[in-house]
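step=encode ok
step=design start
structure_in=
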């Protein structure tokens, strides 16, 4: 019987040896218990479909990684570099992002309901058709971000900087709080 993985390096070894399928199978066998992944470089990897729900990702590099259709529900993501990372259709509800660089990241059609972003740099990020219902974007830089068609009811952008951000055809309600610099169509 193989010992249960405990460290970030143990999990990285599983990912390298068994791929995303093996990684997910191990997580499932362990009941998706809390997972600590710190100080890892996962840049340029195809991690599509990976389940990082209930995980803490601290000081992780995901630059140019492919995480389409992945799961990061209740993930705690801090000091991560996610430049040009592809989160297409990823489920990230109730995730917490703090001090992350997500410049140019693709969150298109992703689930980010009740997510919290604090001091996140998301210049040029794509949130088209994403569900950001009741999300909070606090002290974030959203310059040139594209929210076309996004679902924003209850979303709080009031403390974000969003010059040149695109908010065309967004779904919102009376609870939506817009960034002071937002040009909402």
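sequence_out=
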């Amino acid at each position: 019987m193989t010992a249960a993985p405990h460290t970030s390096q143990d999990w990285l070894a599983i990912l390298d040896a068994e791929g995303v399928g093996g990684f997910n199978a191990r997580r499932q066998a362990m009941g998706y218990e809390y997972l600590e992944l710190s100080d890892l470089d996962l840049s340029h990897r195809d991690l599509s479909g990976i389940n990082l729900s209930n995980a803490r990702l601290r000081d992780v590099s995901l630059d140019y990684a492919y995480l389409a259709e992945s799961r990061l529900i209740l993930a705690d993501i801090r000091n991560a570099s996610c430049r040009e990372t592809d989160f297409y259709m990823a489920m990230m509800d109730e995730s917490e992002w703090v001090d992350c660089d997500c410049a140019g990241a693709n969150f298109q059609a992703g689930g980010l309901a009740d997510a919290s972003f604090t001091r996140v740099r998301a210049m040029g990020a794509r949130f088209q058709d994403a569900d950001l219902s009741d999300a909070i974007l606090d002290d974030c830089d959203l310059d040139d971000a594209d929210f076309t068609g996004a679902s924003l009811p209850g979303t709080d952008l009031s403390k974000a900087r969003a010059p040149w951000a695109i908010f065309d055809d967004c779904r919102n309600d009376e609870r939506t709080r817009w960034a002071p610099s937002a040009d909402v169509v």
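step=design ok
step=annotate ok -> Residues 9 and 104 are 28 Å apart (CA to CA).
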